[in-house]
Fold this protein.
Amino acid sequence: MEKIKLHKTRIDLDSETREQLVALLNQQLADTFDLYSQTKQAHWNVKGAQFFQLHELFDKLATDLLVNVDDIAERSTTLGGTALGTAKMAAKASRLADYPASVVGGNESLETLIDRYATLAASTREAIEISAKLGDADTSDLFTGVSRALDKSLWFLEAHLQA
């Protein structure tokens, strides 16, 4: 992630702490926006016996992710940072594995998304801890809400493959 100059704010966190938080937020923003686009990729291309159910589920999950994308970006700017949120920025910075264009079957689409959701859920839990250690309960709370939503989405995805 490129380093961006902070804007002035009267939020009572020193600039070094805010820089670390903005970098953390922008990394999670990139990963979350990438997961949004991967979920839409699955939504558009899924095939098979569960097509309609999965098509609808993937669209709902993508919509839910957009709320998180907006909240993460706005927290970055609230702290005086610049949200790095274009598709190209996200693609460049995302730590998620690429979504293979060849994945179209229902089960393989589920497995691919499950892997990506689990990866983001784990890094979000790390972000909770990092922001708490930096003394920013608000950012930690934001990530806690994102984590809860990711875990619920992961449950929805995994339930399709469980007996």
About this structure: The helical segments are 15-45, 51-78, 87-93, 106-133, 137-159. The chain is about 70% helix and 0% strand. The CA atoms of residues 37 and 81 lie 24 Å apart.
